Predict the structure.
Amino acid sequence: MKTKFCLIMAGVLLSLATFAFGQAGTDVKTATEDTGKATEKAAKKTGHATKKAAVKTGEATEKAADKTGDATETAAKKTGHGVKKGAKATGHAVKKGAEKTADEAK
């Protein structure tokens, strides 16, 4: 009777162990699927954010290039105006110096 009881208990324990491992396998599979879905979702969000950032960076770069171009144009005009003024003043000073030299030479 004792032996029979032990054999029945061993069979029950083996059955429960098989059932428990089967349940664990199902849980692991479910967790894997959930992780896969979460990873896919995160990748889509990251891709969208990256695309948005690239567009904004492009717009900002274009804006900065326009401002730089405008500033360069303004600086070039001012430089040209300054050079023109300087050349005129230099020419005037050279003319005066030449006149003084001519006066002294007489």
The two ends are 151 Å apart (CA to CA).
